[in-house]
Amino acid sequence: LGPGLVAVLASRLPVKHFFSLDSASFLLSAAALLLIGRLRPLAARRNAHPPRNFLASAFHGFRVVAAHPVLRLNLQVTGAINGAWYAVIFLGLPLAIARHAPGSSGLGAYGLIISSYGCTNLAATLVIGSRKMPGSPGRMIFAGHLVLGTGLMMMALAASIPLPPAISIASFALSAAIGAIGGPLHDIPIAVLRQTELPRADVPASMRAHLVATHSGLLAAMLLVPPLYAVLPVPGVIAVCAVIIMAIGIAGMVRFSARSILVNPF
Asked: Could you tell me where the DSSP H helices lie in the chain?
């Protein structure tokens, strides 16, 4: 909904006030959390482990996740997946829009494309979240990466073809909508596995390990990719990021195929 509002308001609201709206949304979220905390106080928790600082807890999370084959492989690739996704959605896509739809319409076009991503992401979440977990969640998780990478590859192709601005933006929106289906295919089973197959006391540590791995990948991508956009064609860099995600998806699906699980369950 938020990016859709950007598309609607882009021609009427000065750009600086989108920051104002964003700030207001965080303040409203904070107020809601405070109210929830007062209306529904949490029961006192008993800690199974002595208190740890963030890094100590994250390292413990890495050790916990290492014993679970699906969560371990997901933790190993999450930095690359999210780094490549950020490099496309927050760097490559705006550059592609600026070249295909220059001028003041670019901000609205970006909002429309991200809104398209959000709409199918929400729809897929409702559908996938209402179904039972598959017998081999690993294949489903990495199939999600393959779908995401396919959507980004479609975006690279759309950015490489000279098309009228309206058709280019529609192509970007369609590509984003298709790629967004991969998010719930990955996120939902990972969340279920983390909460049901790890010791309850270790779930927070596993989440901290996930945050460290993910944001390390984002940091690396934000340091390495901008110089590539400066010297290489934008569609080419987007395509490279898409190939990275697709390759990880295919490798994971092969790793957790029925035959490989029978041969090597761990």
From this structure: 2-9, 16-39, 54-66, 69-86, 93-100, 105-129, 137-160, 165-180, 182-197, 203-231, 234-255, 258-263
